[in-house]
Amino acid sequence: MDDVAAVSAGGTHTIAILTDGSLLAWGSNFSGQLGDGTGSEQENPVRVMGDVIAIATGWNYSLAIQSDGGLWAWGHNRDGKLGDGTNTERHMPVRVMENAAAVSAGGSHSMAIRADGSLWTWGNNEHGQLGDATTINRYRALPVMDDVIAVAAGNTHTVALRSDGSLWAWGNN
């Protein structure tokens, strides 16, 4: 494949951004993680949406940010990891946040940095991986920290880098 600008691999699927902003997806699709409106596996890449600048994949879900800052989510949604306020599986992208600048997908939780540097989180929180000092699952985005410049969500933990160079970690240790 030519003209690929970014790629992310989930548990059994892959998504990529082309240099023209197109988002392509392929692989398993049992939970709608490809975002093509079907539940059918795709051996060849299918176009999902355009104007995409950032992506992340979890085990069986996907996240994408468009150039206007809109964050979109689709796929498996147990524990609210899509952030749309439900636990309903989505086979097409749903817009879940505005002003997003970066995104990371864990095993069953999601993290986003907004343009103002605030860190937002949602999804499974069994091990405190959301960073909100609870173990309550969240179905919508919740702010947890300011001045964040990078975030990485692991399977059951999260790390965040603040603008002062300090590294923060929480969740399963």
Entry keywords:
173 residues; mainly beta; four-stranded antiparallel sheet; 15 strands
Helix/strand class:
mainly beta
Q: Mean pLDDT score, rounded?
A: 97
Query: According to CATH, what is the topology?
Result: Methylamine Dehydrogenase, Chain H
The main sheet comes to: 4 strands, antiparallel
Any idea what the radius of gyration is? 15 Å
Beta-strand proportion: over 45%
Distance between the termini: 39 Å
- The outline comes out as globular
The amount of helix comes to under 10%
Task: Summarize the structure in words.
With 173 residues, this protein is mostly beta strands. It has one domain (4-171): Methylamine Dehydrogenase, Chain H (7 Propeller). It is 0% helix and 53% strand. The chain is built from no helices and 15 strands. The strands form 4 sheets. A 4-stranded antiparallel β-sheet has the order 1-2-3-4, with no helix packed on it. Strand 6 and strand 7 form a beta hairpin. The chain is globular, with a radius of gyration of 15 Å. The termini are far apart.
